[in-house]
Every structure is written in C-alpha cells, then in structure tokens.
C-alpha cells in the first residue's frame, strides 16, 4: 500500500477542523483533512442552520479575547470569500436578578470593557417585543452578538482551504492513529497517510481516539426546535437578539427566524442523555417537542405556533466545562481541540488559528491557559 505524506493531517473537518485546515493551508502547509461523513454533515455538532455568536462569556472572562479575535476572523473570512456568515442581532443573557447567568455575564464584559446594558424583563419586551421574560429577571444585552450560518461557515472554510491548496477527503473514517515520537500515521477505510503533525478535531469521537480523554469527555444528545410565529415581524434578525435564558422551565437559547421558516430554540437539560456517537437516537420525538414548547408558550408567546422542524445534534462536555485546546501531553506535534460543551461554534475561526499555531510553531500567543491540559487531567 502506498502511504501518502503531508506536512499536517487534520482529523475531523467539522466546525473546528475545517477552520484548522483553512488556516494551515493559508500558511502554505501541505495539509490533508479527513472527514468520516460529508462536508458539512448532520451527525455531529456543527449543523442546525445557525449558531450563536456572543462576546458575552459568563463561562470565564478569558473567553472574551478569543471571542473578539473570532469576530475579526469571521469578518475576514467573509471578505475573502464574498460570503455572508455572521449576522449581527445583539445578544441577551437573561436570568433571575442576582443569579449567576447575569452576574457572570456582567463580570466577563466588565473585565474587558465591552459595551452592554442590564435590562429588566419589561424593558427587554419594550425594546424587543418578541420577548416576554419575567420582570424580576434581568437581561444582559450586548449589541455585537448575533449568529453564524454554521453549515455555510464550515463549507466556506473548506472552499477557501481549497483555494490555498488543501486536500480534503470525506466519507473516509479513521480506523487507527499511530502517534510516534516524530510524526504520525493515520489509517482509514480508504488508505494510509503519514505526516509530521496531527490536528485532532473529532468532536464526540475524540475519546475514542485518545484514551487519556475518554473519561473526561461526555457526548450528549440535544434537540432543536423551530416554531411558527404568529407575529413574524417580532422575530426577524433586526428585531430579535439571540438569547440564552435561565427561566423556571430550564436553560434555553434561541434565534430569530433566518432562511428556514420558524423561531429556533434549544435547551440545556438538567439530566442530559449521554450517548455513544456511533449508536444513538438521532430522530427527534414528540417527547422532545413537549419539553421545548413550554418555554416558547410562556416567554415568547408570539412564536408559539405550529412545529416547523425538530432536529438533533451532539454536544460534547468536558469534565470541567472548559474546552480542551492544547498539544498532546506526551507528543507536542499533536494538537487537540475537544469538549466544546455546547458553546464552541462561535470560536471556530480562532480555534482554527490556534490549532495552526500549535501545529506549526508548537505554541500560540492566544490566551488559552484555561483550555490547556496542565492541572486538568
């Protein structure tokens, strides 16, 4: 068997891997991207039409500089490709007054001097009539938030990677990765490839490729729903900010109507369903719909019409809910991005840049301390 050689192999060409492939190719690296499904596909975490973009980062203040750089890189990719990817609507982080959803959001924004307002439920509804949150809740409004057209963004990263000479092979599952002191060999269903460096961006499958992460990553099933608004004008991108909300019905997030008909929401359940990404129920059920609908009926009543669509995706949680972005603890020529815990897509553009830094330079100037392996394994 002929073993084809490259400078760098990227395993997984979803949101993160497509961006890494692009940034490596743009630097003149001879890069091969390997994807087990299509590019893009609906079996992982990078689909569903839209993904929230926000500078508000209650997860940790150190996420804010990465979000700012991601914003710059998304706009640069739009300019290079001539494709609209990021729509600005503003973003809202809402929850009970004094609750962590609000206080942590404000802390992250204030730490980096990011413009924002804190509005009551009534004030939110006055400004954005689609909203109907309780008045004793507070919404942290940040005007630079919005949403990414996620499948389009992944496709654009790959198309621009092609422009810079990358090779991407889809429908080619990885069967084995042999990591040596110097270099790697990747065996797939179609062939064998070698490279000096490896980038692993395989989402819910990462624990199957790396034993040391298998107990620290938890793939989970999530459901998305689209409902028909009775007042569509209230749910257009110019009138409705994307949101994350902690309300009595649970933790939800949502989007204005965009291209596909319907007001889109998702939920972070208290007891998530852990799955095997190779064997799980990807078909939504009526029970899934019943869990999502009360939020819309109670807090976005003008969007609580008929169901337009249901869809599922995989979310991969890390053990401490901060994603992993680092080189392998034993092999510095292997860069890893994993465990994005349901809020990673917005960072794809900058994660791709970081992974390219790690693969070509062994380190990065980006602030990734909270995402590295030291002290977390």
> What is the overall pLDDT average?
97
What's the Cα radius of gyration? 20 Å
Largest sheet: 9 strands, mixed
Q: Please tally the helical runs, counting DSSP H or I stretches of 4 or more residues.
A: 8
Q: Percent of residues in helical segments?
A: 25-40%
Task: Give the strand tally.
Answer: 20
Account of the protein in words:
The chain is an alpha+beta fold and 377 residues long. 50% of the residues are buried. The protein has helices spanning 15-26, 63-81, 100-111, 121-127, 150-163, 206-209, 286-299, 348-361; strands spanning 3-11, 31-34, 50-53, 86-88, 91-96, 117-120, 137-142, 146-149, 167-169, 174-179, 184-188, 192-200, 217-227, 242-247, 250-255, 263-268, 273-274, 307-318, 324-327, 334-338. Strand 15 and strand 16 form a beta hairpin.
Task: Show the helix and strand layout.
Blueprint: E1 3-11, H1 15-26, E2 31-34, E3 50-53, H2 63-81, E4 86-88, E5 91-96, H3 100-111, E6 117-120, H4 121-127, E7 137-142, E8 146-149, H5 150-163, E9 167-169, E10 174-179, E11 184-188, E12 192-200, H6 206-209, E13 217-227, E14 242-247, E15 250-255, E16 263-268, E17 273-274, H7 286-299, E18 307-318, E19 324-327, E20 334-338, H8 348-361
